[in-house]
Amino acid sequence: MAAKKNNDNPGNNPEQEDLLSSMKDDATTDESFDLLATLDGTSADPWIAQEHGDGIQGVVTALDETTSDFGPEPVPVVTVRTADGSEKRVTAYHGVLRNEIRKAAPQVGDTFACRYFGQKESKSGSTYHHYQVKVVRSTTPPPATGGPVPAGVPF
Q1: What's the mean pLDDT when you consider all of the chain?
Q2: N or C: which end of the chain has fewer CB within 10 A?
Q3: Are 81 and 126 in contact (CB under 8 A)?
Q4: How many angstroms separate the CA atoms of 143 and 38, rounded?
Q5: Which helix H or strand E contains 15, and what residues bound it?
Q6: Rounded to two decimals, what is the model's pTM?
Q7: Which among 40, 41, 44, 42 is positioned nearest to 66, based on CA atoms?
Q8: Coil, helix or strand for 150?
């Protein structure tokens, strides 16, 4: 395929010119896709561990973050679709859960699991809520959902 000549910028690489000529205007839309139809006014229910052994597993459908009254650090939020088809939101208010999610770095489409092991005592004598998180990476790319994960989301 011959590269188009770009008289406006003669220093451009011909391969870059081919890529540029294939780009579409962002203002064009696919009229067959109705994003409004996907909005039903509902949101995922929160998953809140109550007892030692509580857990959740599902496919990650969304990643977000929120704030907390207990510090300036952003709080990760992972939404998963469970085996029964319901969506649950895991919000990492507890420090160990926050660290586990960041370390596992889930992405949309991955299988995500989280288990709560109750309160534990640290070596210094303080108590904390203990969690463990595991992620299995998806082997297929997630479907397009309207855009990338927002900038600044730490996982």
Answers
A1: 80
A2: N
A3: no
A4: 14
A5: helix 14-21
A6: 0.66
A7: 44
A8: coil
* Pairwise CA distance, residues 152 & 155, whole Å: 9
Residue 78 belongs to what H/E stretch? strand 71-81
pLDDT of residue 29 exceeding 70, the answer is: no
Q: How far apart are CA 79 and CA 57, in angstroms?
A: 10
The answer to whether 73 and 140 have CB atoms below 8 angstroms apart is: no
Which residues does residue 115 pair with via DSSP β-bridges, in sequence order? 55, 132
Distances (CA, A) of 28 to 48, 83, 99, 149: 42, 37, 41, 22
Give me the pLDDT at residue 16, please: 45
Q: Within 13 Å of residue 103, how many CA atoms lie on the same side as its CB? A: 11
Give the tokens for residue 23.
């780009």
- More confident site: 19 or 71: 71
Give φ, ψ of 130 to 5 degrees: -100, 130
